Amino acid sequence: MAAAAPKPETLAAFEAAKGFMPVREGLALYAAAAEAGALGLPLVEVGTYCGRSTILLADAAREAGTVAVTVDHHRGSEEQQPGWEYHDPTVVDPEVGLMDTLPTFRRTLRKAGLEQHVIAVVGRSPQVAAVWGREVGLVFIDGGHTDEHASGDYEGWAPHVATGGLLVIHDVFPDPADGGQAPYRVHQRALASGAFTEISATDSLRVLRRVSPGI
């Protein structure tokens, strides 16, 4: 059976949105979200930025009759700060001098017509995960890329993935020459736990299914 694909207007909104995820990986994320949506549980994204990938999760949630939840403090991850490669001065709040991607994210969702299918949580991932109280069908880890942040996202959110649910990890680079290693180490930890098995790999996007308890 062919993988589920987003509507043309959803894909166009994704491509127009500010962000870093390539289309191939986006299509793989959408297919995973569509599959996980069949569980009828929320789809959780860790690392909203400006909402590019949130569009895909929201559309999949809409089709499944569930909701996408996206978690971010909206002050930018370490590589997005001034002086770093991925810094974008257009998302700096001039009044406080800090990044604030929340307004851009809200505009992104509104343009895509998906606001009502998303719960946006503004906060730090481990703190939000600590008060989260139910199983989820999918967790998409795409937050900070240091070991501290990637491990915190995994330890906070992976326990909430239901049996048969999916754990999706972005920016997994086995070769250090291709990118940072923190997401790769989280990916390897998930596999080594025996709780997850990999079901697909698309460039730097990995999709794992929960097959037993634990992390």
TrEMBL record:
EC top class, as a word: transferase
Any GO molecular function: methyltransferase activity
Listed InterPro entries: SAM-dependent_MTases_sf (IPR029063)
An individual GO BP term: methylation
Coiled coil: none
Pfam families referenced in this protein's UniProt entry, alphabetically: Methyltransf_24
Enzyme Commission identifier(s): 2.1.1.-
The keyword Transferase appears for this protein: yes
Keywords from the named record: Methyltransferase, Transferase
Protein name, UniProt field: Class I SAM-dependent methyltransferase
